[in-house]
Amino acid sequence: MVVIISELSKYLMIILFACYTYESFSVLARKKTSEVQKKIMNRQLFFIFLIHLNANAVIFANTQDLKLMFFYLMQVTLIIAIQLIYRIFYRKASILVTNHLCMLLVISFIILTRLNEAKAVRQFYIAVAASVITLLVPFLIRHIHFLHRLPYLYAVIGVGLLALVAVMGQTSYGAKLTFTFFGVTLQPSEFIKILFVFFVASMFYHSTEFKQIVITTVIAAIHVLILVLSKDLGSALIFFITYLVMLYVATRNVGYLLAGMTSGVLASLVAYKLFSHVRVRVLAWKDPMSVIDNQGYQICQSLFAIGTGGWFGMGLYQGLPNKIPVADEDFVFSAIAEEMGGLFAICLILVCTSCYLMFLNIAMQIREYFYKLIALGLGTVYGFQVFLTIGGVIKFIPSTGVTLPIISYGGSSLLSTFILFAVIQGLYILREDEIREETGETIRKKRKEKNKE
Q1: pLDDT digits (tens, 9 = 90+) for 7-36
Q2: In what order do the strands lie in the sheet with 184-186?
Q3: CB of 247 within 8 A of CB of 256?
């Protein structure tokens, strides 16, 4: 009976998630009125709760653990609280971005409960804390007007914390990533990505002259170099690509883009020669089956899981996702593909793409140049991290060891992504303020013209 429930539920989840994904793109159509858009986003919320309920019914059927039902109710309470915060206190915020945040959070709770109940509970408490911590971020973005004046403060904090980790950090999977502060383990690079975007945006907001570009490039290179020395090459790559994109958009100079790409290729070759774990990952990427008993074991298990799941998945608790090393962190996408199906995984990619497009849309439409660069930089950080994670687990690129934002287990990653989404909401509210001002100016001009007549 349990197997039948799991089998039927996987099809229902795919259908519901496909409907949610379709609505994510249909709501962007310009012809739709605001009322129609609200109805679409309310339907999205309905799909979120149905997917969540369906998955937890399967979880209970397989575990018979009443505590997990109480845990489910706590999750529902959190999702409702997040929705109410943005719908009541930030009425100009993007409900689509809020829905995506909740959808990704629900998928995280589902797959982590399946893989490791204790980690799922910790992820929930971190999500609650992140919701409280980021509560005022949109308000601060909207009302603090001197953020562009602090570029060197962002740089000092960023370089200082990265250097601290490089010297005193704890080694994890061959790289110095974290340090413990008052009993709390943090990965500073997750938060410094946001500070780094503010630093670059501040510098290019003031000037894009050659001297300013050289100074900015040197400081950005210091960030990347410290990460390379710490062997945190995934984060180093995210910093590098983010800077390159922001540099090109700010200057429109193809020469800078080509020079950056060339230096990136050369740096990759140097890293391949210097670091043994880079060579190991490249070997595992090129031919994982030849080293399946050692370096290629993780990627092989990932590919086996994705292949086993097929289009429709094995169903929750019907696969073997725990055979994938670090399945709840770096390879969570493989676990999702195995038990929820390839179609569900494709919808997940499309939802992440919808988030990225929303970030770029804000970057294109907001008038204030500083905030335009912020939206672009944060969108690049988010989009490129998703690409690195999913690209690594499907063997499209070598694995870089970065997490899938919001979905993977990890306190620093979850909190930093909550902050990123909250900043984006603040920028969306600023854009709405600009539209309101433009509308007001248009109305005033028309009134003046009528009075003259």
Answers
A1: 888 899 999 999 999 999 888 766 667 788
A2: 170-172, 175-181, 184-186
A3: yes
Q: Which residues contact 47 (CB under 8 A, 6 or more apart)?
A: 16, 17, 19, 20, 23
Residue type, 5: I
Whole-angstrom distance, CA of residue 339 vs CA of residue 115: 11
Residue identified by tokens 């950090």 is 169
**Closest to 178 (Cα-Cα) out of 329, 283, 332:** 329
Pairing of strands 175-181, 170-172: antiparallel
Q: What backbone phi and psi angles, to 5 degrees, belong to 337? A: -65, -35
Start-to-end CA distance of the chain, whole Å, equals 79
Q: How many residues does the chain have?
A: 453
Helix (H, G, I), strand (E, B) or coil at 39: helix
Rounded CA gap, 203 and 381, in Å?
18
DSSP string covering 340-364:
H-HHHHHHHHHHHHHHHHHHHHHHH
Is residue 284 a contact partner of residue 291, using CB atoms and an 8 Å limit?
Answer: yes
Task: To the nearest 10°, report the CA torsion of 112, 49, 68, 111.
Answer: -10
The single-letter DSSP state of residue 409 is S
Calpha distance 355→81 (Å, rounded): 21
The overall pTM is greater than 0.85: yes
Q: Which amino acid is at 212?
A: Q
Tokens of 227: 């990460």
Query: Which of the pair, 178 or 105, is modelled with greater confidence?
Result: 105
**What's the CA angle centered on 344, arms 233 and 323, to 5 degrees?**
60
Confidence of residue 443 (pLDDT cuts 50, 70, 90): low
Q: What is the DSSP string of 277-343?
A: HHHHHHHHHH-GGGGTTTTTHHHHHHHHHHHHHTTT---TTSS-GGGSTTTTTTTHHHHHHHHH-HH
Residue with tokens 């800078």: 256
**Amino acid, single-letter form, for residue 19:** C
Q: How many Å apart are CA 286 and CA 9, to the nearest integer?
A: 37
Retrieve residue 162's tokens: 């990265």
Tell me the sheet residues that pair with 175: 172
Which residue type does 7 have?
A: E
Distance CA 425, CA 347 (A): 23
pLDDT at 225: 92
